[in-house]
Amino acid sequence: MPAIADIYPGSALGGLYTGLHEAQTEWIFVAPCDMPYPDPALIGLILSQREGFDLVVPRTRHGLEPLFACYRKTCLAPMRELLERQHYRIFDFYDQVRVRYLEEDELPEGWQHNLVNVNTPEDFRGLTKVPPR
Question: Domains of the chain, with CATH numbers?
Answer without folding.
Answer: 12-104+114-126 (3.90.550.10)
